[in-house]
Amino acid sequence: MLTFRTATRADGPAILALLADDDITRARAAAAGSPLPEPSAAVAESVDAALWAAYEAIDADPCNELIVAEAADRTVAATCQLTFTPSLSRGGAERLTIEAVRVRGDLRGQGVGRSLIRWCLDRARERGCRLAQLTTDKQRTDARRFYESLGFTASHEGLKLPL
Amino acid sequence: MLTFRTATRADGPAILALLADDDITRARAAAAGSPLPEPSAAVAESVDAALWAAYEAIDADPCNELIVAEAADRTVAATCQLTFTPSLSRGGAERLTIEAVRVRGDLRGQGVGRSLIRWCLDRARERGCRLAQLTTDKQRTDARRFYESLGFTASHEGLKLPL
Q1: Which residues does chain B have within 8 Å of residue A88's beta carbon, measured at their own beta carbons?
Q2: Which value, to the nearest 10 degrees, does the dihedral of the CA atoms of residues B139, B145, B147, B148 take?
Q3: Closest chain B C-alpha to A108 CA, distance in angstroms
């Protein structure tokens, strides 16, 4: 039993814990010389001004939504961020970009991520989007298979440049 | 001599002509049963309500910018769309996504695209973005090399799903 909804400020610490609980994120943070804390009470304390400002920017912008999947016990089971981008391509339709998808460690392999992505795709269809897109690190071979099983095609190279 | 700026309504027809003048776009439109007109006066007439609504949405949203490179003769030499996405990752920094990059056919191979992308990256740095990203169709092998020469790494799979 999952409930999908936009995040509130109260979800902040749980979302940050999910974002931090990821091998690639940990490696990136370590390489940048700023290792993230282990997901714990310390994460809640690390919700600093920059992150709250980002949360407020997401919350205020009609093109961005922070989504959580809530478990029956009211805890946050999974999260992702949706960006709806207006475009002059494809007849002026919006496209959905999905970022920062995370499922809580103890709930992986149970279909939570699949339900979350399907819900997001339905939300995009309701909004009139004609394309959904995301990128996934080539190290995440399981993730590519997961998204392909949901109908995505790995037709594009995803290029990144740290600034 | 190029001038970079955000687009105005007057640039709409020229931008649509650039978007249409692309083999992959043409193939996609043909597959969808709605071939785009050849870049010509007809393009200007095809600027319909949905496209103007998309233009207005881009123009009104602080997270989206439609960019044009203007040649010395005041014509539009190139275009792209910038999306600045607030995020709880990377310390709350925004990321820049670049979409719909097009250089006018008669100006290709002269460094116009390179100048455009560099200008966009500078704009993102000024705004405090910590990451720039884009996807490019795997059929566009020249495009991948172009972006790699600008410092991008093809570290990710770009997955798409028409809705």
Answers
A1: 12, 15-16, 19, 51, 54-55, 58, 66, 81, 100
A2: 130
A3: 21
Q: How many CB pairs under 8 A join A and B?
A: 214
Query: Token pair for residue A142?
Result: 């399981």
CA-angle at B157, arms to B152 and B163, nearest 5°: 120
**Strand ordering across the sheet containing A76-85:** A3-6, A64-70, A76-85, A95-103, A131-137, B153-162, A153-162, B131-137, B95-103, B76-85, B64-70, B3-6
Residue of higher predicted confidence among B6 and B36:
B6
- As a residue count, chain B comes to 163
What number of other Cβ atoms are within 10 A of residue B59's Cβ? 15
Query: What's the gap in Å between the CA of B84 and the closest CA on chain A?
Result: 10
Q: CB-based contacts of B27: which residues, under 8 Å, 6+ apart?
A: none
Please answer whether residues B98 and B132 qualify as being in contact, where contact means their C-beta atoms are separated by less than 8 angstroms: yes
d(CA A99, CA A78) in angstroms, rounded, equals 12
Question: Considering the entire predicted model, what is its pTM?
Answer: 0.89
Contact A163, B125 (CB under 8 A): yes
CA–CA dist B14, A60 (Å, integer): 32
A163/B85 CB distance under 8 A:
no
- Average pLDDT of chain A is 91
Residue A26 has pLDDT above 70, yes or no: yes
CB atoms near residue A17 (< 10 Å): 24
pLDDT for position B150: 98
Rounded distance between C-alpha atoms, residue B59 and residue B66, angstroms: 8
Exposure letters A104-129 (e unless 16+ CB within 10 A, then b)? beebeeeebbebbbebbbebbeeeeb
- A161's tokens: 């440049």
Looking at the predicted complex, does its ipTM rise above 0.90?
Answer: no
Burial of A77: CB neighbours in 10 Å, binned 0-12, 13-18, 19+: buried
Are A156 and B97 in contact, with CB atoms under 8 Å apart? no
> How far does the CA of residue B3 sit from the closest CA of chain A (Å)?
22
